[in-house]
Design a protein that fits this description.
The structure holds two protein chains of two kinds.
Chain A: E1 3-6, E2 11-14, E3 19-21, E4 23-26, E5 32-38, E6 44-50, E7 56-59, E8 62-65, E9 75-77, E10 86-93, E11 102-103, E12 107-112
Parallel strand pairs in A: 2-12
Antiparallel strand pairs in A: 1-4, 3-9, 5-6, 5-10, 7-8, 8-9, 10-11, 10-12
Chain B: E1 4-7, E2 10-13, E3 19-25, E4 31-37, E5 43-51, E6 54-57, E7 64-66, E8 76-78, E9 87-94, E10 104-105, E11 109-113
Parallel strand pairs in B: 2-11
Antiparallel strand pairs in B: 1-3, 3-8, 4-5, 4-9, 5-6, 7-8, 9-10, 9-11
Classes of the chains: A mainly beta, B mainly beta.
Chain lengths: ~110, ~110
């Protein structure tokens, strides 16, 4: 079945450092890919998405490119801030009707000043 | 904008008690979902609904029940609480399933079974 694998955390960075969180997927067909962010004590919020190969999703300085050849959707940010500290989830959605999101296990990011 | 609202935010139950977790959305979404989140395990789908009167099991439905009498509401029922049901529960909704439509999440219910 479909699955998502993302790098285990926690990831600890200093402010203004470069961030990469790896995400790879297994799916039949052409899924849509998402990154969600969860701040402490809150629900998940959509950060960015990409719906087809070579699409780049971007938001709040974060970017991820849908790479079909490597089945990857790595999250990057050039300069992290303390306020980016959160848990990040990679997820995929099959293009079949009636299917829900499949999530990775989440990666905790902690940014210190 | 309310979006997806879950109540209560926190609850402690004794083993064998029952309770209902409430979820309501004001976006007129047909699709609604219940997930549980356990540490280091991501989110697992419990039940979902494609519209009023229609529900289906997800990956981990045992010990839970749902109903969907209106488009807005999708309550989750625990009949005989067990320690294994200690978790954070999230309700979500979306315009459709599959494809590029994102899901919108509530802030969660933190449930402890003692």
């Amino acid at each position: 079945g479909d699955s998502v694998t993302q790098m285990e955390g926690p990831v600890t960075l200093s402010e203004e450092a470069f961030l990469t969180i790896n995400c790879t997927y297994t799916a039949t067909g052409y899924p849509s890919l998402f990154w969600y962010v969860q701040y402490p004590g809150e629900g998940l919020q959509l950060l960015l998405k990409a719906t087809k190969a070579d699409d780049k999703g971007s938001n709040k300085g974060f970017e991820a490119t849908y790479r079909k050849e490597t089945t990857s959707f790595h999250l990057e940010k050039g300069s992290v801030q303390v306020s980016d500290s959160a848990v990040y989830f990679c997820a995929l959605s099959s293009n079949q009707a009636g299917t829900a999101l499949i999530f990775g296990k989440g990666t905790t990011l902690s940014v210190s000043s | 904008n309310a979006g997806v609202t879950q109540t209560p935010k926190f609850r402690i139950l004794k083993i064998g008690q029952s309770m209902t977790l409430q979820c309501t959305q004001d976006m007129n979404h047909n699709y609604m979902y219940w997930y549980r989140q356990d540490p280091g395990m991501g989110l697992k789908l419990i039940y979902y609904s494609v519209g009023a009167g229609i529900t289906d099991k997800g990956e981990v439905p045992n010990g839970y029940n749902v109903s969907r009498s209106t488009t807005e509401d999708f309550p989750l029922r625990l009949e005989l609480a067990a320690p294994s049901q200690t978790s954070v529960y999230f309700c979500a909704s979306s315009y459709s399933t599959g494809g590029s439509q994102p899901q919108h999440f509530g802030d969660g219910t933190r449930l402890s079974i003692l």
